[in-house]
Design goal:
6 domains, Immunoglobulin-like, 13-stranded mixed β-sheet, Ig-like_fold, about 45% strand
């Protein structure tokens, strides 16, 4: 056994290590090189390596993943007892200086030519004491370092190590053949070497690439005792197979592979994959923070003493819903995949890439929260682009602007008044920002994100806001191939599930897409230069490259016939494929992603739409839509997803060309919606039922309960507004949970949002003109007032989030717009 030991004064820890074969690809993707070594995690100050036969090298696995790892030589000197001790004082300080890593977990893998028989994983936080990391053991004394190693019967073999430099250990390769089995003990033609990634959420669905040797087209895969559904397996070649991880119990599980029923080919990899004990939903959000995410644990006992952090920053707010569910408001961050940690007592759960900050907006932030209003009100005010506080913003409680309170440098205003014992209207305005009002706030916390006003005058007062659609160089890239079942069977024809072209102007083509946040999005055919055709080259199928925002992504491909000679171009999809759970990091490549085109688009979904009555202004037609809701990953838009009959009609609609919800689409749903709109452009007045979910095409989807169209009563159409009074009524229809005013001024540059927890109503808001234009008032001139009436499933106004102020967060809504002037 090899150990590292020392005194308490030196803060040394004992560690053990096991020899293994490390298999890594060179930058040129040549033959993997097998290396022997041992893996240990060192302590704080120093450690010795008794029995080492040569100098030791250190391999770091940083919080950004293995791409941030570095190999550092560890100069050694003889010690009493024959051990080796590094020169210098504090190892952690030296390592931190080398890698620029301070005050966060440091993983160190020591590779040496050793003869140990076991290893122990310890987690060390450099600036604090040791933490207990929640990773279940596999046998006595075994704990998994999933970011660094995986174990196998003959030792540990890795193929997913970064393209770093040599570790200072002589390669143990025995052949220059391209076979992945080269150098295996005893020349075994079958092997399971490792998984990439080595961990994922316990609810499954993540894409996992298995490396090994001897895989056939009939390969079977097990995660623990659970066999992967054959439809979720893509045999790529004898050394690689792609699978979708099934759900499992938190902790490490044994991976197993076997070719068909031939048990002689069965190979296992103990602890080859680790199910994370928690996951976040949504798993990504804007760098400005403020996103409210749900942390879902398995077998956890979270309580009021639990502390949750994103990238080592505590959640801005944390609520324990139940022992396995937390609501966390994400702090401001920087782009990229970040670690989630949840600590309860002496136990800490770590998920290294559990949440991704990206330059986008999802709406799960801001709004109302806290306990019922009882004499104390807290208002937090932030910039909606940057997430920074807005010092100097004005907070008006009620309608009297003379009582306005100015927020402090941290963007916080606290009002303590015994009379605050019933719902109050809260309005926030700031220089060069659009104001917002929440009418009849029933709780004690209001979190506001104000949109900056993008005018030259406002830009002159400070730095311009950052772009919200993405930053140059922040995207990741995916490289992979489209493959058909026929690609794996040389006796079959290629593209066998796509019919042959009937016209000279037709061709077989496929296109890649990412799931989106809008289920009502219209399908748009990409440029013909993005087409993947039977002539597109590839190793197993047809290669593609796509650039995508960082995060845990889902992509899908549609394959069919297209004809670019018509206007507009025609594309008929006959088959599709989906890959879920692809980890994409900023400015990094994710390679070897294989999309199997095995989902036929041969089902028909019927709708029974009960359209609202046609009014004098409209609506006059229905726009019906069908998309696929793929779990929490987003929506897939289909080419046959929209129809537009005129009102009145018999209500029957049929959409031919949706996939069965099987194979990679298990757990998905059909998302049906219908919009009663005015004119071909789909303008207001309109009423939308935005979300009806179903999982079968055997019965029609019935859509009704349209929200009545609003009528603005104060101010009257084309009249002057007094800046304070608003009144609206709604026509016959489903009840309204929330009314939202979008009052646009200055040609839309400034927009005042007013949220009202009711349908038909008359309310009063403060006249912001009394604050002055320099403090966020609307300028005089024409106004366009849009009025939404929303129905929201399970709505609680005291838990309102910004997403519910927009159509994306409404189950059904109506909208009309009116003109006035100020």
């Amino acid at each position: 056994m090899v150990s590292a030991a020392g005194t308490d004064a030196e803060k040394l820890v004992s560690v053990t290590a096991v020899p293994f074969r490390l298999v890594r690809r060179s930058p040129s993707r040549d033959q993997p090189q097998a290396r022997t070594g041992a893996s240990v995690l060192l302590g704080h100050r120093a450690a010795e390596c008794r029995g080492c036969q040569e100098s030791v090298w250190i391999r770091f696995c940083g919080s950004e993943g293995e791409d941030s790892a570095s190999a550092v030589p560890l100069v050694t000197r003889p010690q009493e007892g024959g051990g080796l001790l590094p020169r210098g004082a504090s190892l952690v300080k030296r390592w931190s200086r080398h890698l620029g890593m301070h005050n966060f977990r440091v993983f160190a893998c020591v590779f040496a030519r050793l003869s140990a028989q076991a290893y122990t994983r310890l987690v060390r936080t450099a600036s604090r004491g040791f933490l207990t990391a929640r990773f279940a053991s596999v046998g006595a004394g075994l704990a998994i370092v999933s970011a660094c190693i995986a174990s196998a019967p003959e030792g540990i073999r890795r193929q997913t190590d970064g393209d770093g430099g040599d570790f200072g250990v002589d390669p143990q390769t025995t052949s220059t053949s391209s076979s992945a089995g080269a150098g295996l003990p005893g020349g075994d033609p079958h092997a399971l070497l490792g998984a990439d990634p080595t961990h994922g959420p316990f609810n499954g669905g993540q894409r996992v690439l298995l490396h090994g040797n001897g895989f056939s087209s009939q390969v079977r895969v097990w995660f623990g005792d659970v066999e992967v559904d054959p439809s979720a397996i893509v045999p790529i070649d004898p050394s690689r197979v792609q699978v979708a991880a099934p759900p499992g119990a938190a902790g490490p599980v044994e991976l197993a592979v076997q070719n068909g029923d031939d048990t002689s080919t069965r190979r296992t990899l103990p602890g080859g994959y680790v199910y994370d004990a928690l996951y976040a939903s949504p798993s990504s959000g804007p760098i400005s923070g403020g996103t409210t995410i749900e942390l879902v644990g398995q077998g956890t006992r979270w309580n009021e003493r639990t502390v949750a952090k994103i990238d080592q920053k505590p959640c801005t707010s944390l609520a324990v819903q139940e022992p396995t569910r937390l609501l966390c408001t994400v702090p401001q961050g920087t782009p990229g995949a970040k670690t989630i940690s949840v600590t309860t007592g002496g136990e800490t759960i770590l998920v290294l890439d559990g949440y991704t900050y990206e330059d986008s907006e999802n709406g799960y932030k801001g709004g109302l929260s806290g306990a019922p209003l009882a004499g104390r009100l807290k208002v937090l005010v932030y910039n909606n682009f940057t997430g920074d506080p807005i010092p100097g913003a004005s907070v008006v409680v009620g309608t009297d602007t003379t009582s306005a309170i100015t927020v402090d440098a941290s963007g916080v205003a606290v009002i303590e008044d015994a009379s605050l014992d019933s719902p109050r209207t809260v309005t926030v305005a700031a220089t060069c920002h659009s104001p917002i009002s929440f009418v009849d706030v029933p709780v004690d916390t209001v979190t506001v994100y104000l949109d900056p006003v993008l005018t030259p005058a406002c830009g002159a007062s400070g730095d311009p806001p950052p772009p919200v659609g993405g930053k140059v160089g922040s995207a990741g890239a995916i490289e992979g191939e489209l493959v058909w079942d026929t690609s794996l069977d040389p006796g079959s024809s290629a593209w066998g599930n796509i019919p042959s072209p009937r016209r000279e102007t037709e061709r077989k083509a496929a296109y890649l897409f990412t799931t989106g946040a809008d289920p009502l999005a219209t399908f748009r055919l990409p440029s013909e230069y993005q087409a993947i055709t039977p002539e597109t080259s590839g190793e197993l199928g047809h290669g593609f490259t796509m650039y995508i925002a960082p995060g845990n992504r889902t992509i899908y491909a549609l394959a069919g016939l297209e004809d670019r000679s018509t206007t507009p171009p025609r594309f008929t999809a006959y088959a599709m494929g989906v890959v879920r759970g692809i980890p994409v990091l900023p400015n990094k490549w994710t390679r070897e992603v294989f999309v199997r085109i095995n989902q036929p688009l041969d089902h028909a979904l019927s709708m029974d739409v009960r359209a609202p009555a046609k009014g004098p202004k409209g609506p006059d037609r229905i726009q019906a839509n069908v998309s696929l809701m793929i779990g929490n990953d987003g929506f897939a838009t289909l080419p046959i997803g929209a129809q537009s009959p005129l009102i009145p009609f018999d209500g029957g609609l049929t959409f031919v060309g949706v996939p069965p919800l099987a194979r990679d689409l298990l757990g998905a749903s059909y998302h049906s919606s219908a919009r009663a709109v005015t004119g071909q452009a789909g303008l207001a007045p309109l009423s939308v039922v935005g979300r009806v979910l179903s999982t079968s095409t055997s019965e029609p989807v019935r859509i009704g309960d349209f929200v009545g169209v609003p009528t603005l009563e104060a101010p009257a159409q084309n009249s002057a507004w007094d800046g304070s009074h608003l009144a609206t009524s709604f026509g016959a229809g489903a009840p309204v949970d929330l009314s939202v005013y979008d009052i646009a001024s200055g040609n839309g540059l400034i927009r005042w949002t007013v949220a009202v927890p009711a349908g038909s109503h008359a309310v009063e808001v403060p006249d912001l003109r009394q604050l002055g234009l320099e403090h966020g008032a609307l300028p005089p001139g024409p106004l366009t007032i849009g009025v939404y009436g929303a129905r929201i499933d399970g709505f609680d106004y005291g838990k309102l989030v910004y997403r519910q102020l927009k159509p994306a967060g409404m189950a059904a809504y109506s909208l009309d717009s009116f003109n006035a002037h100020l």
